């Protein structure tokens, strides 16, 4: 469970204040969010229980960039920095993540995947995401074929898709986080026609393999 230290991140953005005005601002706003993701989500399984069933969301490094509305190109000079160290060149999404944590060799080219309005909305959603599990109240079957389910609350949602990853819980298929949106999970634009969001009953967090 993320400590209350990270609740400062949500102040302002959900009220329309502190909106980022350029990509540099967005990157700096993302750094503490990435740190929280690294501390409390990375390589962990969050198992959400609802209506006598459950789903498992597995949080990996390469998932983070796709939640932000940004994208990353890796210059040749930066690729060569990894090769000179006899290291495999990571994917652009992994380099993006390492760059936010100040662990990369050089500076990648950060670009907008959406306009600034959408990026600001995604930042607001991410600031709710890192408050999991308290910030998740419902799960909804997705009305968008790109996603299987949405999790969230009245002011945000997370879209997830099922993966081929082996289950660690026989009752919960493993899902990957794919999109963060500042839209209500209760919205009819989110839920599949003829279905209703279901309250989350409980959340179990499975530690990383090297954790006690």
Written description of the protein model:
Helix 1 packs parallel to helix 4. The N terminus is likely disordered. The protein contains four helices and ten strands. The chain is globular and about 55 Å long. The longest helix is centred in the first third of the chain and has 18 residues. It is of the alpha+beta class and 212 residues long. The strands form two sheets. An eight-stranded mixed beta sheet has the order 9-5-6-7-8-2-1-10. Strands 3-4 form a two-stranded antiparallel sheet. Helices cover 24% and strands 25% of the residues.
In short:
The protein is an alpha+beta fold and 212 residues long.
Instruction: Count helical runs.
Output: 4
- Total number of strands: 10
**Terminus-to-terminus distance:** 15 Å
Strand content: 25-35%
Give average pLDDT, whole number: 90
List keywords for this structure.
24% helix; alpha+beta; 10 strands; globular; 8-stranded mixed β-sheet; 212 residues; two-stranded antiparallel ribbon
Helices and strands in order, then pairings?
Layout: H1 23-40, E1 45-50, E2 53-58, E3 70-73, H2 76-84, H3 92-100, E4 109-112, H4 116-129, E5 138-141, E6 149-153, E7 156-162, E8 172-181, E9 198-199, E10 202-206
Parallel strand pairs: 2-8
Antiparallel strand pairs: 1-2, 1-10, 3-4, 5-6, 5-9, 6-7, 7-8
Helix pairs in contact: 1-4
